[in-house]
Give the backbone structure.
Amino acid sequence: MTARDLILQEIGSFRKPEYLSKNFHQIEGSREFMELAERATTETLEVFRKAGLENLGVGGEMFRWEMYEALAENIENLEFYGMVRSFDNRYYRKGSVTGPVVRKRPFHKHELQYLLDTTHDTLKLPITGPYTMMDWSFNEYYKDRMELANAYADAINTEIRELKSLWDKYRPGEKFEVQIDEPAATTHPAEMDIVVESVNRAISGISGIEPSIHVCYSIDYAYLYSTMPELKVEGLNLEFSNRDVLTLGRGSEKRPGFADLRKFREINDTLSKKKFIGVGVTDVHIDTIESPELIRDRILTAMDLVGDPSLMRINPDCGLRTRSREVGYQKLRNMSDAVHEIRKEL
Amino acid sequence: MVKIEGLIHGIYPKSEKLRIRIGRWERGLIRPEELDAIIKEETEDFEKLAGNNLLHTDPLFNWYDIFRPITLISEGMTLGPLTRFEETNTFYRIPLIHSLPRLNVHPEKFLELDENPPLPLYHVSGRWIAFLPGLQTFYAYSRNIGSLPRETFFQEMGKIYSEILSKFSASSVFFMERVPVDRSVVKAYSEISDPEKTIIFTTGKLSESAFTGSKSKFQSIIVDPERDNLKLAAAHSLVPGLKLIDGRNTKMETGSSVKEKVSELSSGISAERVIVTNSDYLDFLPRSVADKKVALLSGGLD
């Protein structure tokens, strides 16, 4: 066990301060918006530092309203006809692809530029993946889902290339961590070939990056684990706590949410270059703040199952945007306290 | 030449105005009665949009998913966690079956229920079709905590459905099955209501064995657009139906492409009339696109 084991990382989003969220769409892209998003990023980075995170992501995605829109608004031939219901009275904007998918503007350049200008912390850039973009779009143009996913992959590849060039100007020789967000990855188990091909294509030919994939609320991670030999990412950042219980205890039986890490290990053990696993140890869908003791039990259970702590990173299940900033902070703080306790013990 | 009849069914996407009002109701800023009045108004607007040529169900503006209102007005079932609805980015509250389901609330009365806009179950005027989730689908999409046998569930839900139908003066009933139908459910439907007033929306390959022993023809059997399916639907219903309007894609069909497909599939099949309908309820589409699809169905297929 070393100090570099169990790196404490963010997954992506964090609740926006009200001064940014209340007029987000009305002022988006304006000078006022940039100033507010920058201010919110700085404040959120400080929250993350105070909570003890070691990888600060992009400061809570203050420049982005939502993961799909952040890319979709910057893509040619993606039309929005209106809102589509997700559940209850909650809606999202689902675009229709009516022609070739082409990136018309950079997606995250300003956000990264601001971070590189203002911080020397370890960062990780999340970007919505090609399969999820495809799955969440209506397809009026491409002949099939594979073709559309690959078109998105090409647009994302262009973006990552440009961001990497920017990164190199500020941090030459330092690896650029890129997290491909694919919440839809296992929703159509018969399409795991599309997931693999499109994600690989999105990062193809770009050296000096550390690509990872984030998946959450999967019906069965076994579909994802089975792709590990072909998937050219270095790690998987996954949600586990949402499927776990809130009582204390260690081991697969007492921690049902973590039991299938065994399958991860089985496959990882067969690989010549092993992948890391980012383990979600706090549930972002509930306001209950898990105690450091509970999180410690989750981490120790995961360590037993994964076998090698150097392959583990510690994170929340997903972005914390649906929780208040206070609850989000406390969840991260307890996560950090649990890790420090374990590092001391071991 | 086969005559085409348009049919629109299921949960219809809410207007922006209605979405905002529901949000205000959720936050306690408007009274349930006000929301109810707005839903009635919007339903009337939908009926105007559909026009006289179109068969339709209630647009179900106060339904959040196809199982929830029925679950909430029945004993023996509760709402479970939000669960992904099939392979979409849409979620529903999975029904939990604990024990024999029984209707415990008057479905025609105005009522506020937990986690659902106020009922009554339907807001309609004039001639309309009652929409109900299919029994097989209800069973398959629920978590059967009480280990209730399938046939028992069909029987008890059948009673609930009969009671609901007897309280509303619908001209017919539409059962949405999202899994392939079998003999036991077809038999259940012929007992719940008059088969000649019953529309069964089926999924996948239709099998002749599902109709073994079935003596009466149903009003309509709606099928995925395949020739064998249509043949069976024509044999066992008065007017077979085809799902030719894509409820999952914004791409617009044209009147000529629909007519061409009907003509191609129905050639040599004994059917004077064919129903054309949406392949899924239109709540998966933006409202503006759904409106265009309704306009096509109500006037563009003559």
Chain A touches chain B through 24 residues (CB under 8 Å). Residues 145-170 of chain A form the longest helix (26 residues). The longest strand of chain A covers residues 90-103. The mean pLDDT of chain A is 96.
